[in-house]
Amino acid sequence: MPTKKTIQLSHGGGGKEMDQLIHDVFFKAFDNPILTAQEDAAKLNMCGHIAFTTDSFTVSPLFFAGGDIGKLAIAGTVNDLAMMAAQPEYLSCSFIIEEGFPLADLTTIVNSMATELRKSGARIVCGDTKVVPKGCADGLFINTSGVGRILIPDISARNLQVSDAIIVSRDIGRHGAAILMARDGLSLESELYSDCDTLWPIIEQLLAANIKMHAMRDATRGGLSAVLNEWAKASQVGINVEEASIPICDEVKGLCELFGFEPFDLANEGTFVMALPMDIAQAAIEVMQRYGHCEHAAIIGQVTASHPGKVVLQTPWGSSRYLDLPQGELLPRIC
Amino acid sequence: MCLSVPSKVVEIHDDATVTVDTLGVKRRVSCHLISDPLAIGDFVLIHIGFVMNKIDHNDAQESLDLYRQIVTAMQLESEQ
Amino acid sequence: MMTLNDFYQGFRDPQTIGHLATLIAQQAAKTNQQINIMEVCGGHTHTIMKYGLLQLLPTNIRFIHGPGCPVCVMPKERIDHAATLASQADTILVTLGDMIRVPGSMGSLAQFRSRGCDIRPIYDPLDTLVIAQDNPHKTVIFFAIGFETSAPMTAALLAQAEALHIDNLLFHINHVLVPPAIDAVMSDSRAQVNAFIGPAHVSVISGSKIYQSTVDKYQTPVVVSGFEPVDVMESILRIVTQKVAGKAELDNQYSRSVSYEGNLAAQQLVDKYFMVRDSFRWRGLGPIAKSALTLRPEYHHRDAERIYAKILPTAEIDDHKACMCGDILRGLANPKECKVFGRGCSPQTPLGSCMVSSEGACNAYYRYGEVINAN
């Protein structure tokens, strides 16, 4: 008998073991009356416009500096709602677990999900568990979907206006860099931790301060470059960015030097970009700076009528270039 | 070609490796390609996991001083 | 006392770059001649494009991007070698990340990996030792690429494999040399290059001495230059100053890391394991005599190119007809003159290797390229 408890195929079999897993691990962490009613579908009470989003999470390694796949799965979906100015309310959660996965790790991950949920007040109201034979999954995959009530309408990638300010909430590239650091193959060490975090509390404060933003997006995969390029195309405007004003921490710079990456291309999991009228940008920054992780929030650029569909990076050296979408898999390069 | 980055030696190991720091990112790299021993605080160039050489920091300092002089001289010129 | 940040900030200082640009313009105004500088090395191409240095230079200074990207100069048949080796049973192909996306005639290594081949991109060649030790029943083949800069690292790996008797580790050597490539560019009667920025990390290993023959033979200035934007601007200033004075000399801007003799320990290591090949076919440049390395006979037992000679394709495969990589690598065309640039050929779907590597001229132009005038 193995001394460490692991997930068996029977945990996904719909029988006694599965029932025990659901009660001992999931219900214990996510406890709320809608979930524990155990109906075929959760009954929700909602009115008005609803935002609805889904995301699947696969990350290697599952635990990294600043978070784990569970924290990521909650923050990711909650943030997608928050970026639409929607108050995150109800989440679903599906686990695909590889046979032999340590029960203790699963419990840690589930508890970290519960901790993250408390930051926004959202609740997991339905879920599913599947166990697949060893080798058919890489440890653990999580899917979360979420709904939330839209508090202010019209926030959209198509809504950027010429002369809007572009704000980034904090230093960029941390999550992508932290994940690379955590990979065995590169044998790196640093004090760097992921930015992984729930953004709803800040968004709630911005909305309470009556900040009328035109667009918000969390700069996840594809990083800052992807968000800005998507916006420029969707709104058919140009976006002018001052390279020198983009906050980047030393460790992210160091990693980029070593492996030839661009910080603009690295993923974030708790960093967002916002477009809003220039005359209220400073007020927004003041609200944001009250939050520790947004103390470096900065205006990094402006929406322009020139170069529609393109992002122009003004370098500190007096030249400028297009900031393009990141391409292909991120591989360390020698040249 | 040949992406190589300045880094600082922060730890010496007895298996012909040193730990270097590149702006807060630490990595153990090989010293197989250099004959002179390294000391903590040395600046080195790193290429694909190897120390390529020791950077002459006096020489680097001289270059930076020269650039500073250029900047100062040209600022004076433009003020006149 | 210097800090590490001085190396980064000091050699990227916007004010210094601006003032060097002014000095370059002042010097360049003293001559009517067109100065065509070839930056041989893709690392310099990257710096020039990323920092937008072309926008800061007067019109009589032009850059011609040279063949110094180790991935871009690999002909398709060599990529096919890698793919063929990776397709063998119980084989792990290990190579540096840059190789993974380069298209061969049968596809890229990334495509072969998705079909189930065990292909592992690594950052540090010595990691190959661990892979070989962890997989004693498999053949591990290190597909070695790079110029003089990276050859010593392959030699160090081979030395370790020999010392530790790791017998399941083989090598496929594609190390190429800079000076013969410069000769190939200059021997073309259409060559317009009249000055060189010398690849400095090559010279960290091989010394600045390797460019003396270029200076003597073609009467062109060669300035060995660092890779930071201030380094490149200072090197341009030194070239223009030589041009104005009618000089053609070997100069070393990167003296903080480059000596005339180079890293002798590394050179000895390379000498011990490698010898110069009679000829090597370069993409775009064709066969160049004595332009690449191969394993010495004592190490033929590790030479995958020999051991698998019967199954490795030998036919030379040229680029897609529309692809101008050849002319671009020779410095005869600018990426934007290529009809498929940005249309049929992009970093996602490259026709030629200059579009694949971030050091390739086409990739640099695509990524940073449509440089916009600051005004």
TrEMBL record, chain A:
GO terms for biological process, alphabetical: protein maturation
Domain PurM-like C-terminal as annotated: residue spans: 163-312
Domain of life: Bacteria
Residue ranges constituting the PurM-like N-terminal domain according to the UniProt record: 39-150
Transmembrane domains' residue ranges: none
Family the UniProt entry places it in: Belongs to the HypE family.
NCBIfam families the record matches: hypE
Protein name in UniProt: Hydrogenase expression/formation protein HypE
Automatic annotation (TrEMBL), chain B:
InterPro entries for the chain: Hydrogenase_HupF/HypC
Gene Ontology molecular functions: carbon dioxide binding; iron ion binding
Gene Ontology BP, a term: protein maturation
Pfam families: HupF_HypC
UniProt superkingdom: Bacteria
Similarity remark: Belongs to the HupF/HypC family.
The protein's name: HypC/HybG/HupF family hydrogenase formation chaperone
Native species: Shewanella livingstonensis
Lineage of producing organism: Bacteria, Pseudomonadati, Pseudomonadota, Gammaproteobacteria, Alteromonadales
Name of the encoding gene: hypC
From TrEMBL, chain C:
Keyword field: Iron, Metal-binding
Gene name of the record: hypD
Coiled-coil annotated residue ranges, if any: none
GO biological process, one term: protein maturation
InterPro entries with a match to the protein in the record: Hyd_form_HypD, HypD_1, HypD_2_sf
Gene Ontology molecular functions: 4 iron, 4 sulfur cluster binding; carbon monoxide binding; iron ion binding
Protein name: Hydrogenase maturation factor
Family from the record: Belongs to the HypD family.
Organism: Shewanella livingstonensis
